[in-house]
Amino acid sequence: MPQIRLEGSPALLDALDLQPLIAEIHDRIVTIAKAQLIDCKTLVMDARAERIGDGSLAMLHAEIRLLPGRDLATKQALGAAVTEVMEKAVLPHKNGLSLHVTAEIIEFPKETYSKRVIPA
């Protein structure tokens, strides 16, 4: 576990070099939340369309789902660190837009999580 979803404005996602961004997010999760790198799984969710506010805004959001066990300070530090990583990645691609960069750390019950690893 963790499972990470990145979603954002299509033009912004197209402009980003996503693999280094994902690697940095994984690094923060390993360092701060003490997760194993092998367990970090990220999907980038492409939006077919979006409109934020009056159209002069773009957004990038990370949803990080973790199993329980981290205290509030750890989750807050992880959210802040991931937001900072994303902010640095998007700044060169503002193209005159205001940007909203957000991260959400979500715990879900281990009792309802099921996983199977299917070897190669």
From TrEMBL:
A single MF term (Gene Ontology): 5-carboxymethyl-2-hydroxymuconate delta-isomerase activity
Spans traversing the lipid bilayer: none
Recorded superkingdom: Bacteria
PANTHER family listed in its UniProt record: 4-HYDROXYPHENYLACETATE CATABOLISM PROTEIN
Protein name per the record: 5-carboxymethyl-2-hydroxymuconate isomerase
Organism: Elstera cyanobacteriorum
